[in-house]
Amino acid sequence: MTNHAARVETWLDERAEEMAGLLERLVAVDSENPPGRALGRCARVLREAMDHLGLAPEIIEIADPSGELEEPCVVRGTAGEGDGLLYFHGHFDVVPAQDRGQFTAARRDGRIIGRGTADMKGGIVSMLYGAAAARELGLLGDGRIVVHLVCDEETGSVVGAGHLRAAGLIDPAALAMLTAEPSGGAIWNAARGAVSVRVDIRGREAHVGQADLGVNAFQHMLHVARPLERYAAEMAGRHTGLPMNAADAPGTMIVVGGLSGGGSNFNVVPGSAFFTVDGRYNPEEDLEGELKRLTGLVEEAAREIGAEVSVRTTQLQPSAGTDPGHPAAVALARVVGEVQGAPARFEMCAGILETRWYAQLGIPAFGYGAGRLDVSHGPGEYVDEAAMRRCAAVYARYAGHMLS
Predict the structure, then answer these.
(1) Which helix H or strand E contains 62, and what residues bound it?
(2) Kind and range of the H or E run holding 13
(3) pLDDT at 1
(4) How far apart are CA 188 and CA 321, in angstroms?
(5) What Rg value do the Cα atoms of the chain yield, rounded?
(6) Fewest beta carbons less than 10 Å away: which of 25, 62, 90, 320?
(7) Mapping DSSP to helix (H, G, I), strand (E, B) and coil, where does residue 173 land?
(8) pTM greater than 0.90 (yes/no)
């Protein structure tokens, strides 16, 4: 181990309890999204921690057109003052818990267990301490790290990361971007795109005693949804050519009916019904073309039975990717390999990543974090404490390599 690497490792090991304590405080803030609660409260915890670490934090209040998010904001901080720029990016909203007990972190067998530990409050802790280590140990040279922490990744990220893009807060001249998503130690250099729609069906209500006078929107919904199930099966069979984790399916993944509902009472012919379609499309697919095809299937099925439907696009986000041969990718792989003691592996993320907001501006962008995707949204979500520190070491050393 070089002296440089040893200094980073020692610095982080001396702050292991601090890192664990910060994660426990973050887990205790129930920043579930949806509905988007406690976002301002979580941001203030982060600002306090970043101030303690000398990262010059500020909270940027932002508007939510839907009005659903509670105190939507971005937390922004900086380490260093030079011209060279590296972005660390994360999100502090979490998916809804299966049990309220998940907001009390538990430490067992080297792990911290609780909602958001893997996705991605544990990753945020790694990034903050990695940035602070790089600054305190003089690794930044003539460069700086800018930390962006956003509030709405779990519901599309248009409000948070979208604001950064729209407000010109992402500099296209940046050397690279890292986000601490739960990649399990792999480097996610690519991610799928997303298409999400909501299908609404209108019928006519009638009392069950006069059901013949009604138009059953639920029955129409069943007919309209059927070809979409066949479409989902077809797309699952169209495999990507990019490397993926062996546990992840290589085909485009589509969920029909993730949300559905309708009707007003058990004894009334339902006069309305709705369902959603959510897809994660491989980079090889034409998203605009597939959205048009998906909408066409709904409209054709509706015409067959005279159903009245409308289709609303709720998400259309492109895939993102950085060539593993790019110098920023090669440098990251070398640092990861040195810290982990094993060759780094590049993979495509099975979902979508906020790397896309940076990649669209030509910035090399990667997901790399200590958490594991397969536990991230489940009742036993956890992050390994030693892996958190290893990732923080990667962030610090990568910053040193790119900026010094």
Answers:
(1) none
(2) helix 3-13
(3) 47
(4) 9
(5) 23
(6) 25
(7) coil
(8) yes
Amino acid at 42: C
Q: Which of 208, 231, 224, 218 is nearest to 303 (CA)?
A: 224
Q: What is the DSSP string of 88-126?
A: EEEE--BPPPSSGGGGS-EEETTEEESTTIIIIIHHHHH
Instruction: Give exposure, 298-308, as e/b (b: 16+ Cβ within 10 Å).
Output: beebbeeeebe
CATH classification for the domain delimited by 3-191+319-403, as one of 2.40.128.30, 3.40.50.300, 3.40.630.10, 3.40.50.2000: 3.40.630.10
Reply yes or no: is the peptide bond before residue 35 cis, omega within 30 of 0: yes
Binning pLDDT at 50, 70 and 90, where does residue 351 land? Answer: very high
Sign of the dihedral through C-alpha 26, 28, 29, 31: positive
Interval 65-99: pLDDT, tens? 989 999 999 999 999 999 999 999 999 999 999 99
- Domain 3-191+319-403 matches domain 193-317 at the CATH topology level: no
Q: 3-class SS at 145?
A: strand
Q: Cβ of 129: how many Cβ atoms within 10 Å?
A: 26
The percent of residues above 90 in pLDDT, for the chain, comes to 98
- How many angstroms separate the most distant Cα atoms in the chain? 83
Mean pLDDT confidence for 35-39: 97
Residue 229: half-sphere exposure toward Cβ, Cα within 13 Å = 9
Place of tokens 């299937």: 297
CA dihedral angle for residue 85, residue 143, residue 339, residue 133, rounded to 10 degrees: -110
Q: Domain extents for the chain?
A: 3-191+319-403, 193-317
Place of tokens 């992840």: 248
Please tell me the distance from the alpha carbon of residue 366 to that of residue 359, in angstroms, as a whole number: 9
- Condensed to tens digits (0 to 9), the pLDDT of residues 282-308 reads 999 999 999 999 999 999 999 999 999
Buried b (16+ CB within 10 A) or exposed e, 237-252: eeebebebbeebebbb
pLDDT at 4 over 90: no
Q: Which amino acid, one-letter code, is at 176?
A: A
Of 3.30.70.360, 3.90.1640.30, 3.40.1180.10, 3.30.70.260, the CATH number of 193-317 is 3.30.70.360
Q: Are 131 and 89 within 8 A, CB to CB?
A: no
Residues near 228 by Cβ (< 8 Å), separated by ≥ 6? Answer: 254, 256, 277, 294, 297, 298
